[in-house]
Design goal:
With 176 residues, the chain is mainly beta. The protein has two domains: 85 residues, Elongation Factor Tu (Ef-tu), domain 3 (Beta Barrel); 58 residues, SH3 type barrels. The chain is built from two helices and twelve strands; from the N terminus they run βββββαβαββββββ.
């Protein structure tokens, strides 16, 4: 699984960063990075900023990573005032621009919202969150007033069918 904790916007944009406060006076801004693909922020890369429900295209001029954050400079933003106008905006790419993943790997936004059923067909809930844990990802399943976690690794997941929006798990004793 690609552990990008990504959300989808209304325009089929996949959020790769969220703009924080301006950094300096020349339009640079601090961003919370939501993508583990370093190519998303290489100079010349195109990003869409969603501001007040409208998407605007920007070009990456420079990016300095800082763990889950980074300092981003966009070619079209040259002042602290312009950077301030983008504060809180989601930066994203269109879903079709993500590129394919290897078989059996999924983007987080594809997993969130899947209906979870046991091998016998019992409905157990819906994947609400993907948690990134040191031992590997876990899917938080919520349903019927309860919540439980399914490890992404270890054979608990029998199948994932994105077209049907379905995850089939081995509902072993003690899992929920």
């Amino acid at each position: 699984m690609d552990n990008q904790q990504q959300a989808k916007t209304a325009d089929d944009l996949i959020v790769v960063a969220t703009v924080g406060k301006p950094h300096g006076v020349n339009g640079a801004m601090k961003v919370r990075v939501e993508s583990h693909n370093p190519g998303r922020f290489k100079p010349g890369a195109k990003l869409l900023a969603v501001v007040a429900g409208t998407a605007r295209s920007f070009t990456v001029a420079k990016f300095v990573p800082q763990n889950d954050w980074g300092i981003l400079t966009l070619a079209e933003v040259s002042s602290v005032e312009q950077a301030e106008q983008l504060r809180g905006a989601d930066l994203g790419v269109r879903e079709r621009e993500l590129g394919p993943l290897p078989a059996g790997c999924y983007y987080t936004f594809q997993i969130i919202g899947l209906k979870v059923v046991s091998r016998t067909g019992q409905e157990l809930g819906t994947v609400a969150v993907v948690e990134e844990l040191p031992a590997g990802d876990a899917y938080v399943v919520r349903g019927r007033g309860a919540e439980f976690r399914v490890p992404a690794q270890g054979g608990f997941i029998q199948s994932i069918d994105l077209d049907r929006g379905l995850m089939v798990i081995d509902d072993v004793e003690g899992l929920r």
